[in-house]
Write a structure and sequence with these properties.
The protein has 272 residues and is an all-alpha fold. Helices cover 75% and strands 0% of the residues.
């Protein structure tokens, strides 16, 4: 990590405009991760289907019994988008941080890969794509459970999955960037406790953000999960507002920024 805070911020500002070169090596690295993932596929799928079932039972038959309706829908329907969005956020972040750091420092996976005709830019983008893909698998599993329980109509879920994949990309890129700056696994706990978990609670997941104090409400509007939640709820409610374009543009902006930061930082970590 950079010793001087001033140097760190100046370098980070420059890294925002470092656009990685995109080549076909990205898909080779992604395929390598997928082939390795197949060995744990059965256990992973068992859990990602079981977890949303527990949430549906808890919110539908538990807490939902005491809360009649929110914004004209049942409580389990209100939190259904949160189940999908937070699942994607957590998996993308955890895979991007812990998974990337393990390959970078313990397994030396990336050091071996760049000995081939694959650049560090391709490795960075491939890792982000893989983390987002793995998170998206969990999101789809949650969606299948929600549709099977009759909580959400299948026709409205499909377009919402595109927004959620974009959300997964944002947190995957954030995770990879943090992993490239970290010196230990413990470093990720601070961001998980100070950023990821608070977002899962206050970004319109379990209650409308309009109930928050004005100062907190303004802060919440800066967080990516809020914009994803607003867009997904539009699709699931069968409604569409111009706010959707603002939400998507904000997520795309964050996705590009974090991808550039991750690619620049990984390049310096591996090569310079």
């Amino acid at each position: 990590m950079t010793n001087s805070p001033a140097n760190f911020f100046s370098q980070t500002a420059a890294d925002i405009f470092y656009f990685p070169q995109l080549r076909r090596g990205i898909f080779a690295v992604w395929r390598r991760n997928f082939l390795f993932f197949r060995y744990t596929l059965t256990a992973t799928l068992a859990w990602i289907f079981l977890e949303p079932i527990l949430y549906v039972v808890a919110f539908g038959y538990g807490l939902g019994h005491f809360i009649a309706h929110i914004n004209g829908m049942s409580y389990v329907q209100f939190v259904a988008p949160a189940m999908m969005a937070t699942s994607g956020m957590f998996v993308a972040y955890l895979e991007g941080t812990y998974g990337t750091f393990m390959k970078l420092t313990r397994q030396n996976t990336y050091s071996t890969i760049i000995l081939t005709p694959v650049s560090s830019d391709e490795v960075a983008v491939a890792e982000i794509l893989w983390c987002a893909s793995k998170a998206a698998i969990g999101v789809v599993a949650v969606a299948i459970v929600l549709v099977a329980f009759g909580v959400l109509p299948v026709g409205n879920v499909l377009p919402a999955l595109g927004v959620l994949f974009l959300l997964c990309w944002v947190f995957a890129a954030l995770g990879v960037w943090l992993a490239c700056m970290s010196t230990s696994f413990e470093w990720f706990i601070y961001f998980q406790s100070g950023l990821i978990i608070p977002m899962s609670l206050f970004c319109g997941t379990f209650f409308p953000i309009s109930r928050l104090p004005h100062s907190v409400y303004t802060l919440v509007l800066l967080l990516p999960l809020t914009h994803a939640m607003q867009s997904v709820r539009m699709f699931l409610a069968g409604e569409f507002h111009a706010q959707f374009f603002i939400n998507i543009m904000y997520l795309v902006f964050l996705g590009v920024v974090f991808t550039n930061l991750a690619a620049a930082r990984l390049r310096r970590r591996l090569i310079l």
